[in-house]
Amino acid sequence: MVLSSENDPVKADDTKEIEEVRKSDGKQKDPKEERNNEMTEEDRKLQEDLELIVQRLVESNTDLYVPTLEMLKSIIRSSTTSMTSVPKPLKFLRPHYSKLKDLQTSMPDGKWKDMLADIISVLAMCADEKGDCLNFRLEGMNEPIENWGHEYVRHLAMEIGAEWRSGTSTRKDSMEKLITEIVIYNLKHNAEVEACDLLLEIERLDILIEHVKIDEHERACLYLLSSAPLSPDPDNTNMIKTAMQIYSKFGKELEALRCAVMLNDPALINKLFNSKDDLVWKQMAVLLGRHQIFIEDAELPDGINDLNNNMHISRFFRSLARELDIMEPKTPEGIYKTHLEQSRPFGGSVNQDNSRMNIAASFVNGFVNCGFGVDKILDDTDTANRFFFKNREVGIMTSVASLGLIHRWDIEYGLGQCDRFLYSTDDFVRAGTLLAIGIICAGVQDPCDPASALLMDHINNERHCMRIGSIFGLGLAYANSKRDTVTKEEDGGVIFELKKVLNDNRPSANAEIKGMTALSLGLILVGTGDSDAANEMLTLLMERSDVELSDHNWAFVGLGIALIFLGTQQRSEVLVESLRSLPEPFGSMVSTLVDVCAYAGTGNVLKIQNLLYICSEHYEQEDRRDKKKGKEAPKEKDKEDKIDLSSQQGVAVLGIGLIAMGEEIGSQMATRMFANLMRYGEPVIRRAVPLALSLLSISNPQLNVLETLSKYSHDSDAETARNAIFAMGLVGAGTNNARLVAMLRQLASYHHKDSTSLMLVRISQGLTHLGKGTMTLNPFHSDRQILSSASVAALFVTCFSFLDNNTSVLNNQQNYLIYSLSLAVQPRMLITLIEDTNGNKDSDTPGQLKQINIPVRVGQAVDVVAQAGKPKTITGFQTHTTPVLLAFGERAELATDEYIALTPFLEGLVILKKNPNAV
């Protein structure tokens, strides 16, 4: 046993404690005393040392200030802590916090005053007084911020953000240096997310561009681009622009171009479409071609124009089909498999409308053999003619137009196949051929411009069907085309000629002609915000009377205006207000239509709330209530107002799906909303819900969505059931989903007596087998970060036309509107290419590139935003050899180090180059 002298402080303390315990024997114990008794000897020694330091600072001897404060700084910095506890020095100094603040204020000026301010700034993390951490930091010595640790940096960032938000700060300039220090510290310590959040809060993303390093830029840009869809305007565009500038700073030209595409800025895209590396330039051309942005520049290097013009899609798609051994054409009967449908022993004879079944067969034949260039019905001219003339009038036109789907993207061979029907004696055959030409040329830019040459001659044809075929064909052929040859305002331009038709006052230019012309203009100018064209359509609507506007064709004029402002957000506000001045029922519907299109794919919560408010009105119930009370029936005008306002609700429901699409959380919330709307909504709302639900999961047949739509397809309201059947086709488009195929087969038995519903079941079966399971209608590409305007427009036009399907799509007069889906059709392939070093210039492959088969890993995409380290980007992968098919939500990565991909997202055509560091 070691004995201590009387002067030993530890022994003296122990003796005092024992005496105190004896004195307090039988009394209630103080919790503070208990805590002190539980302290270890080391903690007690630290507490005493800190109290001694505070005592020395209280004394007036300034010579002791600096060494004492240095000692205090050393103790605080050397303290270690876990994530869940406060450092011991800060805990022991907390009772002295106010004393140290007063002391710092009364101290004479000198180095020690600034040193104490730094220490108080750190202590403020544990104090209740807000703002002290930042206030005393600004008064201090401005020592390197990293000396005090990550938690201190976080506190400073929070207080800077709070003061900046208040809008009353007068010291923003003095804080700027501190903000820069915090950003540099966060970037250096893998906290790019916190750096971005701080700069977003104070709206100074330019600081990030200046200080980010090459090792940190990828995580920072990924966070900015992933957060942009969740941010309001203009923060979202600022984030994308910042990411674009960071990519440009480090020579990532392709990634910078992707950001410009996301911004939908043609001038910026033209500026960035340039690269010193010829292969990178070609990969840029592929990206722009996928988004249907065509660059008109005669001086572009050889091969880049072909890749940008999408001349290669047909060739590579058929190469994929041959690799998968699916070139053998299929017939509609082979898709229906009627022998597997449930037998109907007591059903009696089935009264099927053969004309509707023939139209369904035309669509199915086109969808299933889409892009393959060969089928078993239309290949032979005699067989084709017999097939066409099973229909009547517009049905013939619809059947012939299916040629366009079969020869999709193949201008060279497809137009030759169409040519044999251009000289038919039947006007409807020729009209269908014109529409087929438009479908073939959609999204492909040929230097010869065959669509314009063949279709423009018939735009003023005396025959109504010929005009419709040429006008709608032009709309499809030049959808999203911003080329000078299309948009030029002079004699001969496509838009110029369409505007002439729009302003044609002759009796032959009826409501359907005007509606299709406006719709075609909307498709061509989609997302441009062209106020001139929109104002011409607005003027056209203002000249119409209330009775005229009741014709559903005038709604397509409003849809044309909406497509022009697709995704333009606030730029549409003036026109939305102008449309409200139209006769009330029609004006409300069209203004809502333009508003929802302007925010398509943005996930804007406020807009969705407004649309839900529109859906909450119950017009028809008011009518019933009036009748129960014995009141007089409302005037005819009031009655019309209520009916038309409820039709505005259908547009609002579609708008919820359109705005929420592409954003996972928003989609889930919207799906729950639709369940309530289906339960409590008006008939018009219930009819729109299946279509809106399909927009949320295009070509993504999730089990819960399929089950919901299957339930709606048995609804007592025929129109609701029909829309649900068609929505099932959109949800499963191009997936060959076995469960959906079985559901549709069951529906064919259930609706066997209803020819209209059965026709839609057949069309949905064709959509499910779109391209024999190799294609998609999904409008998102480039790892689901970029939304294709033309694809969204195609889907929305189709869904909108089904809102009032009995008067448009299903009345055998406008079923050709379903062909607008052809704009959204894309192969979901991954094909890898390398440069053809043999210099075979006679090769058919564009840009002197040749196809190469290499191993790739394909698996479910994993969200790696803000995750630490280098996490895996896919999970549950399988290794395949290219070419391969990518399903919804799948991502691919190279399984070999021999090559480097020139794009970070392996989709469509991917150009590779040899890896110089490969072993």
Automatic annotation (TrEMBL):
A Pfam family hit: PC_rep
GO cellular component, one term: proteasome storage granule
Domain 26S proteasome non-ATPase regulatory subunit RPN1 C-terminal span(s) in chain numbering: 865-917
Keyword Repeat: yes
Gene Ontology molecular functions: enzyme regulator activity
KW DNA damage (keyword) present: no
Listed InterPro entries: 26S_Psome_Rpn1 (IPR016643), ARM-like (IPR011989), ARM-type_fold (IPR016024), Proteasome/cyclosome_rpt (IPR002015), RPN1_C (IPR041433), RPN1_N (IPR040892)
Signal peptide interval: none
Top-rank lineage group of the source organism: Eukaryota
GO BP term, example: regulation of protein catabolic process
Residue ranges of every copy of the RPN1 N-terminal domain listed in the record: 50-341
Disordered as annotated region, ranges: 1-44, 623-644
Compositionally biased spans, kind Basic and acidic residues: 8-44
Sorted UniProt keywords: Proteasome, Repeat
Assembly with partners or alone: Component of the 19S proteasome regulatory particle complex. The 26S proteasome consists of a 20S core particle (CP) and two 19S regulatory subunits (RP). The regulatory particle is made of a lid composed of 9 subunits, a base containing 6 ATPases and few additional components including PSMD2. Interacts with RPGRIP1L. Interacts with CRY1 in a KDM8-dependent manner.
The protein's role, per its UniProt record: Binds to the intracellular domain of tumor necrosis factor type 1 receptor. The binding domain of TRAP1 and TRAP2 resides outside the death domain of TNFR1.
Similarity section: Belongs to the proteasome subunit S2 family.
Protein name, per record: 26S proteasome non-ATPase regulatory subunit 2
Taxonomic lineage of the native organism: Eukaryota, Metazoa, Ecdysozoa, Nematoda, Chromadorea
